[in-house]
Design brief:
- With about 375 residues, the chain is an alpha/beta fold.
- Helices cover about 45% and strands about 15% of the residues.
- An eight-stranded mixed sheet has the order 1-2-4-3-5-6-9-10, sandwiched between helices. A two-stranded antiparallel sheet has the order 7-8.
- Helix 3 packs across helix 4 (about 165-180) and helix 6 (about 210-220) runs antiparallel to helix 10.
- The longest helix is centred in the N-terminal third of the chain and has 40 residues, at about 10-50.
- The chain starts with 9 loop residues before the first helix and ends with a helix.
Length: about 375
């Protein structure tokens, strides 16, 4: 019996062989990608394990004055001739002040030093349980005022430039209404002024807090609760997506170093004195007394219209912690004939600790302050 054997033609054999090769190539690519992902995950794990050792706040400085709840730092000048009017920076009571000196190429303080300014910084200490009753009056009329006087005496000037960030900017504005005779210029970054204009998650959340009950039950606001609150602002970005980005960029040393420094700052959250937090939430966020000129500090009513000195107000258009218009309202509230509102397309942290800040924000800020510092 004749038997026919079917043999594929040349083109069919070629296609079959090509298919087998493609399968091998695809398998090799997949195995290579899996290996690369595994390596990146292991490297990320090791990087995060040692994250606490990352260096921050490296610009040389010295403690020239110290009290129970603050240290006054003076930064070593970087040029031979500095502006006549020194700058005193008032940082917020939230997180730590080294965000202003995160790393050499993203340092607000180092940049201003390079522009020829004499820089001082109030570095707030962590309040203890016994500091439960420390109030805005203490921070503004005692601690900030002590530092202002110390800088004035040390530099032999009558007036200084007061420069604040976020909550520190709000306190700087409040201080200026009470002690304007000691201030030549007021420069604020993202101040909380008109809470009715604050549409952020933080602003809305603050309106539903019960600060009196919190004060009576826990005293100082614990750092854990404060960090948990900030984590709710952008839960996916802060809780998941940022770590995906870290794994993806784990071989980029510059990216990793910057990520670790910001991450260190985010987790480094001290408690806030109970009475100060209660007044911050009640009077500013819930009753909106500051912009109405009805907020009381000690025995004084805070009237923002009393501010007549030059004002520079710096606002981030993409700020997710303080709405831009909430901050911009300060310019409408003061009586200063010389006032400037600068808006930048960046976020709350990007405004002070980024390459964008170094290249776009600080040159304009320094130019404005220097013109009013002689």
């Amino acid at each position: 019996m004749n038997q026919e054997t079917y043999l594929p033609n040349t083109s069919e054999r070629t296609l079959k062989r090509g298919s087998e090769i493609n399968e091998k190539i695809d398998t090799n690519i997949i195995l290579k990608e899996i290996g690369d992902i595994t390596r990146k995950l292991e490297k990320t794990r090791n990087v995060l394990h040692n994250a606490g050792a990352i260096e921050v706040g490296s610009t040389p400085n010295e403690i020239i004055h110290e009290a129970r709840l603050y240290r006054l730092l003076h930064y070593r000048p970087m040029v031979s001739k500095t502006a006549k009017t020194p700058i005193l920076f008032v940082y917020a009571l939230i997180n730590r002040s080294y965000i202003l000196d995160l790393q050499p190429d993203k340092s607000w303080i180092r940049n201003l030093l390079g522009q020829g300014f004499d820089i001082y910084l109030i570095d707030w200490k962590t309040p203890a349980r016994v500091d439960k009753y420390v109030s805005f009056d203490d921070y503004v009329n005692e601690y900030i005022d002590d530092c202002v006087d110390y800088v004035r005496t040390k530099t032999s000037v009558n007036k200084i430039t007061l420069h604040g960030y976020c909550m520190g900017a709000t306190m700087s504005a409040i201080y200026s209404t009470l002690h304007e005779d000691k201030i030549r210029n007021l420069a604020t970054i993202a101040p909380v002024i008109d809470s009715n204009q604050d549409t952020t998650v933080l602003g809305n959340f603050s309106r539903h807090l019960e600060p009196d009950r919190m004060f009576n039950s826990i005293g100082n606001l614990p750092s854990e609760q404060l960090y948990a609150l900030f984590s709710t602002l952008k839960p996916f970005k802060q809780g998941v997506n940022k770590y995906f980005n870290l794994v993806e960029n784990i071989d980029n040393e510059e990216f990793v170093q910057n990520f670790l420094r910001v991450e260190k700052w985010l987790y480094d959250t001290p408690p806030i004195a109970g009475e100060t937090f209660r007044q911050w939430i009640t009077d500013i966020y819930q009753r909106n007394l500051l912009v109405a000129n009805e907020m009381k500090i000690g025995n004084e009513i805070i009237d923002l219209s009393k501010i007549k000195i030059p004002l520079l107000n710096i606002v981030a258009e993409e700020d997710h912690l303080v709405s831009p218009q909430c901050s911009a309202s300060l310019n409408d509230a003061v009586s200063s004939p010389d006032k400037r509102l600068m808006r930048f397309h960046t976020g709350h942290v990007g405004l002070i600790a980024s390459s964008y800040s170094q290249n776009n924000v600080l040159p304009k800020v320094g130019q404005w302050i220097k013109a009013r510092s002689q």
